[in-house]
Amino acid sequence: MPTSRSTGVKLPPFQLLLDRHSGELFRFLAASVGPVDAEDAFQETFLSALRAYPKLRDASNLRAWLFQIAHRKALDVQRGRARRPIPVEELPEVATGVDGGEREPQLWRAVRRLPDKQRTAVFLRFAADLDYAQIGAALDCSEPAARQNVRAGLATIRKGWAHG
Amino acid sequence: MDERMKEFARRARAEGLVDVAYTETDSPVGRLLLAATRRGLVRVAFERDRLDQLLEDLAERLSPRVLEAPAELDDVRRELDEYFEGRRHEFDLPLDWSLTTGEFRRRILERTARIPYGETASYRDVATAAGNERAVRAAGTALGANPIPIVVPCHRVLRTGGAVQPRLELDERAGTVADVGEQRALRLQVLRHLDALAHRHVAAGSLVAGGAVQQQHVGVSGQLRIRRRADVRRVHERRPTGKREPQGHGTGGL
Questions:
Q1: Is any Cβ of chain B less than 8 angstroms from the Cβ of A46?
Q2: Model confidence over A113-162: pLDDT tens digits?
Q3: Regarding the domain delimited by B103-253, which CATH topology (the fold level of the hierarchy) does it fall under?
Q4: CATH domain A14-162 topology
Q5: Reported ipTM
Q6: Which of B32, B154, B164, B186 is catalytic?
Q7: Residue A12 contacts by C-beta under 8 Å, 6 or more apart in sequence?
């Protein structure tokens, strides 16, 4: 077997990660980049995870690890869009309408307009129910910084909400 | 599996990222887990031994890159279906022995894999064929830990002087037995019957009353004796299949 289990960490079968987390990761990606681009970002997320999996040194927070990868893939998609001469900002209403999972489209639109880090932090806190330490792990920042990003994101959403 | 998962399995395979592919399938002996590596079939398991536990075991012993990928096991499923329908008497599948530790244990299982359809051997037979006729107990341990049952037909190995129980009695008992070890023993018995029944043994002999009858392993066109009860045996005549190994084989050629 061409595998390297030298890390000594007991990792669950990868299929278990898929079964447990594919739904919420797809929702996270759909909320970040819209449901159309989310399909490819989803595949890329789990392929990257599967590639790196056997060498993972810490199995204590696989969920945050997956969100971290998904967050990066979402950023990739957004960077790709920025290079494309399409006025993406005008489109999300159409695209997100496809996602039947969104019960409050206006709220999610407000979430989507947040800066990357705040948006992800807010999503991880309230949609994925991660605690601040886990969000910090997913975003490569400290726990206080994760808390600050959530707080700032919420403030921005409330402001937009108040202004209609 | 939904489309998103199928697509993922397809892309993961295309990139060579699946170390252990598995699927589940139904069979006359219950639901089965089938798992394969790039080398070949590595595990067949009765799902009574909980799926989660089986997958965890594969992740720990082989690689954590364990993925549900039914397409990787199409050949295995097809051959098993043919076997259970009585249309296949030999498996033509590459095997991966990674889950068998120890050279002697592996030899035991390799010899067992060569016992032809419809025939049986004793623990002593396989121990002898594996090079140590006195290692009967070790042979039993190796067979008990067979990671690839059905395909490696440990059900064709009987305790010396052991008997194949009547099917009816098995069916009656199977519904009531809760013990895992006992269940396993019953499944092996059912497999023995599948082997024998699908083969359409012609009952050429008669029921012979007798005392201590030695279990016998008989050559290609010879007769197969299966002890039906402790004191009764039926002599069957095997129909030659014409596609066996060229030589008849005694225990040494198992």
A1: yes
A2: 888 888 888 888 887 788 899 889 888 889 999 999 999 999 988 887 66
A3: Arc Repressor Mutant, subunit A (1.10.10)
A4: Butyryl-CoA Dehydrogenase, subunit A; domain 3 (1.20.140)
A5: 0.72
A6: B154
A7: A59, A62, B56, B59, B64
Minimal C-alpha gap between B54 and chain A (Å)? 10
Q: Assign domain B3-84 one CATH number from 3.30.160, 3.30.70, 1.10.3470, 2.30.30.
A: 3.30.160
Domain range summary for chain A, segments of one domain joined by +: 14-162
Strand B121-122, strand B66-68: pairing:
unpaired
> Under an 8 A CB cutoff, do A53 and B64 touch?
yes
Q: Convert the pLDDT of each residue in A68-117 to its tens digit.
A: 999 999 989 888 887 765 554 444 444 343 344 456 667 777 877 888 88
* Interface membership of A144 toward B (CB under 8 Å): no
Domain layout of chain B by residue ranges? 3-84, 103-253
For this structure, is B136 an active site residue?
no
> For the packed helices A143-162 and A105-112, what is the interaxial angle rounded to 10 degrees?
130
Residues of B contacting chain A (CB within 8 angstroms): 4-5, 7-8, 11-12, 15, 17, 19-20, 22, 37-38, 52, 55-56, 58-60, 62-68, 98
B64, A11: Cβ pair inside 8 Å? Answer: yes
Q: Which helix (H) or strand (E) holds A27?
A: helix A14-33
For A58, the token pair is 């810490």
8 Å CB contact of A13 and B5: no
Give the distance from residue A14's alpha carbon to the nearest chain B alpha carbon, in angstroms. Answer: 5
B137: left (phi over 0), alpha (psi -120 to 50) or beta: alpha
